[in-house]
Specification:
Elements lengths: L1 H20 L6 H4 L8 H6 L24 H14 L3 H14 L2 H5 L2 H20 L3 H15 L3 H21 L2 H14 L3 H20 L3 H14 L4 H50 L7
Helix pairs in contact: 4-5, 4-7, 5-7, 7-8, 7-9, 9-10, 11-12
């Protein structure tokens, strides 16, 4: 009798278990073991249906000024341009956001803040490459307002200082070059730059010495002593000048001595002539 009852009940138990087991795999985690279940992306990969993709925004589909979707649209375009490394276009969009709304609109999300800050740094690099250092500095300032100052801003500023002082050196504005060079060295000591500037100053000092331009020569030597006091050419030039001055001093001394001798010989000749005249007149005490 017991065997008969079990045979009758077993199919119903199996059916109940099958019904209980037919649970959507996406709900397994949450309904059976307390987990969150599958994510949207995981469900997509376990499904034959294609995932709906967000249509990219374009300049043509960008909402007009005044539309409430305008600023989000500009931010989205800025993100797209930054993602494609179209830095100038990205900076233009973030500038539009600031001018049409405010800088705060960029700061509302961490993503837009970082993307805008990076875009402005990259645009500053482009301006630096075009030798437009004023624009590069302006763009760095915009970036710093969003993400603060970091090694990217500092590194680009050092590059601008380096190129600026070298340009002034080539143009002959040594005073301006020294000022910028000192700013660069104050931020980060660079022995290669010190050696380079020392060689430039030494070359100018030598050229001025050869052309007898003592004012320029002394000025270059003064700057050189400040920038690179151990410069080999500076020491050589000092030794040369001292040697030439020593030779000149000796020459002057010899010349003065020769003049004295000549004058003495002249006076001696005159004295002898007068003595002969007195003897001839028979009056040794008569002066002629």
């Amino acid at each position: 009798m017991r065997t008969l009852l079990l045979a009758l009940l077993l199919p119903n138990v199996a059916l109940a278990q099958d019904e209980e087991g037919s649970v959507d795999i996406g709900d397994v985690g949450s309904s059976r073991i307390g987990g969150p279940g599958l994510t949207k992306s995981e469900k997509y990969w376990n499904s034959d249906e294609p995932e709906e993709e967000e249509e990219p925004l374009t300049e043509e589909t960008l909402p007009k000024p005044g539309d409430k979707k305008r600023i989000p649209g500009l931010l989205k375009l800025g993100k797209q341009y930054a993602g494609g490394q179209m830095w100038k276009d990205a900076c233009e969009k973030y500038d539009q956001v600031t001018s049409e709304a405010s800088e705060q609109s960029i700061l509302e999300t961490e993503e837009s803040k970082k993307l805008a800050g990076k875009s402005y740094v990259e645009c500053a690099r482009i301006a630096f490459g075009a030798s437009d250092y004023d624009r590069a500095e302006t763009l760095l300032g915009k970036s710093e307002k969003l993400i603060g100052t970091d090694h990217r801003h500092q590194g680009l500023r050092r590059k601008m200082l380096r190129e600026s002082y070298r340009k002034k050196t080539s143009e002959g504005d040594i005073g301006g070059a020294i000022k910028l060079f000192n700013q660069l060295q104050a931020e980060e000591k660079n022995e290669d730059e010190r050696i380079w500037l020392g060689e430039q100053l030494a070359t100018r000092a030598r050229a001025a010495h050869e052309t007898k331009d003592e004012i320029t020569r002394n000025e270059m030597m003064r700057y050189l002593a400040e920038v690179a006091p151990m410069n080999t050419e500076l020491r050589k030039l000092k030794a040369k000048i001292e040697g030439e001055e020593s030779v000149f001093g000796n020459t002057v001394l010899i010349g003065v001595g020769a003049v004295v001798v000549v004058i003495g010989m002249t006076q001696l000749s005159k004295w002898r002539a007068r003595a002969r005249v007195r003897r001839a007149s028979g009056n040794a005490f008569e002066e002629v």
